[in-house]
Amino acid sequence: LMTAVKPTNLPLGLLWLVPAFPALRLLLRKPVLSAFVAGAALLISFAPNAVMNVQHGREWTGLEKDTHWELEPPSPLLGIAGGAFTLTTRNLMPPFFPWADDWNRAMERFVETPLGAPFRPVYRFGVLSEGMHSVADSNAGLGLGTCALVVLSIVGAWRHRCPDARPPCTGALARWMQWLPWMLALVFMAKVATVENARQMAPYYSFLLPLILARRGHERLVRRRWWQVLAILTLLATAGLVVISRGRPLLPMRTILARLEAARPDSRFIARVRFAYDTRVATEKHRTFFSSRLPAGEKVVGFAGTLALSSVGVWLPFGERQVVHVLPNDSPETVRSMGFRYLVLEEPFLIEADETLEQWTRRYGAEVVATYPYHNRSWEPPIGLHLLRLIDSPAQEQAGSFPPER
Length: 406
Hints:
8% strand, globular, single chain, 406 residues, five-stranded mixed β-sheet
């Protein structure tokens, strides 16, 4: 079950295999029951997702190698070095961080310097989630509060250690189970270089803690009043984040911020906070914009872009459509052989294709049906996302077209 959601969780299967390996021969005692359990385990694992990825995509992992994203680091060593920095910064992101855009611009400038040049091949090195100014379900890692509590616990346990205390378990299996998660974390960093790696690594975090908690002193530390107060404050901070969550706030945050902005129109801080909440609303509109404008009978839709939210919106409603990715070097004949009439095209795709929208539509024989202005970054103009329809003939254009929407 641990490996069922994402292929990045597959290495965690070793955490079961290592302690279970000496007892695997017990499966032969009841082969029928063992086969039933193994089949059930296979069904709830990543295997069904892998089969569907092969059926509807090109890679069993679902991460296609010829897309615009560099989902893997250029080399394992660079991935580990870069991952150590990016995972640290993304896990230490404050619960609310209106200056995320400034940080992202600083990181983009950093990789252009001689010091940051080695990390230039790493996709979006050090950048926080695009358009995210707070911790949310889509970018949450271990969290600033929990990280601070872990660091303070390490220091506090060292100070309160008792030399005469019973030594921790030092058996071979115990040592393996303490160090193996850290080895698997290195494998993760060597293979995953996405912007959301802090969230994708979430299943690993709980397995990294036993090596820390097994040290002497923690049994005395947790009885200290100051540590208990910090632990309670961390829990309360988590509850507070749920209340003001940017994605699903329990308070009317946009109404509150609108009144604050009316009272303090010159406050840049309030403007940044309101933009953070408005971005989430725009994201939801972005997801449904294209799916609501596609004809119900379109089972195959093209996608030419780099923003994941556009791709998700084209898939909606899930289970009824297949999305085919179009690459900048695909010829018009290749595109028309993919079996779709409608496609979503993003302006960043046109930059990679070195064409304007008019040039692309003329060369591929398409017309613009609708355009959505997506605000990806507060300091940049909106990105144009276009719904296009391929025109097979002038007769079809007269019979099936409808006026473009802007």
